[in-house]
Specification:
Shape: globular
Distance between the termini: 70 Å
Number of strands: 0
Radius of gyration: 20 Å
Largest sheet: none
Order of helices and strands: HHHHHHHHHH
């Protein structure tokens, strides 16, 4: 029982945080990311060539599991802090936690919206898994590695990475040119919601207010924390990343097509 209380952090963690980039931090997140990659390749290759409905079952399960873990974390954190409204600071409006909405959207929607949602998960899921584990100085500087905050965060981030790799390996993603603007709109919609909530409730959703110990601190320092230039710069980086990702995929496809045409000639 004492171990469970210490894991959840009731009354505050008795252990000191091992620290950002400590060997404990790096070992823990490496184990999670390796496990994520192995499972993605196993299930992705197994489902490749299967009917779309069968492929989607894995995504549906992932959507349910990632939201179950996040909901459990929110309930426990609100409980330990004796603040039933604490969930207002844990809305799915960070780039990584947006996957709590994007993965179910990809699993349950249809048509162009589904294609754009699948692309969104592909593009940001793996990025979130890496940045949200290895670069999460905001978490690992404050909480023990094997505590609720970091364990739950590590699991949800790597589950996003799993979904991203699985979609790519199983062949579910389309990454069509005509869906680029829809992917932009999905991102801009979340950024707009995050910015508005930040104005009402002093949070840092989408890291649009400050870097908070993450690589965004580089941009924040470059613009000297300007309240206009900084959030615009963050959103600009998101859009640039989407553009580069699509561009690289289009180039790879084009080269494959040319090689195939040359072999057939």
């Amino acid at each position: 029982m004492d171990i469970l209380k210490e894991f959840i952090g009731f009354g505050g963690y008795a252990r000191e945080a091992e620290g950002f980039m400590s060997w404990q931090h790096l070992l823990f997140v490496t184990i999670l990311n390796v496990l994520m990659a192995v499972l993605a390749f196993v299930y992705g290759l197994r489902m490749r060539g299967r009917p779309a409905q069968e492929k989607n079952r894995v995504l549906v399960t992932t959507a349910a599991a990632i939201n179950a873990v996040e909901l459990t974390k929110i309930i426990l954190i609100c409980w330990r802090s004796h603040n039933p409204m604490g969930w207002l600071n844990m809305l799915p409006l960070f780039l990584c936690s947006v996957q709590l909405i994007a993965i179910p959207l990809a699993a349950f929607s249809h048509g162009r919206l589904r294609e754009a949602a699948l692309d969104f998960v592909c593009i940001f899921g793996l990025l979130g898994a890496i940045l949200g584990t290895y670069c999460a100085g905001n978490n690992y500087s404050c909480y023990p590695v094997l505590g609720l905050d970091n364990v739950a965060s590590g699991i949800t981030h790597t589950m996003s990475g799993f979904a991203s790799l699985y979609i790519l390996i199983s062949g579910m993603g389309s990454l069509k040119k005509e869906n680029v603007h829809l992917t932009f709109l999905i991102l801009l919609g979340f950024c707009t919601a995050a910015y508005l909530v930040n104005q009402v409730n002093p949070c840092n959703y989408m890291f649009l207010t400050q870097g908070d110990g993450t690589p965004y601190d580089i941009l924040y320092n470059l613009v000297d924390g300007n309240p206009v230039l900084y959030p615009l710069g963050v959103i600009g980086l998101f859009l640039l990343y989407i553009t580069v990702y699509y561009r690289v995929c289009f180039l790879i496809r084009s080269r494959k097509y040319r090689r195939h045409a040359a072999r057939m000639a």
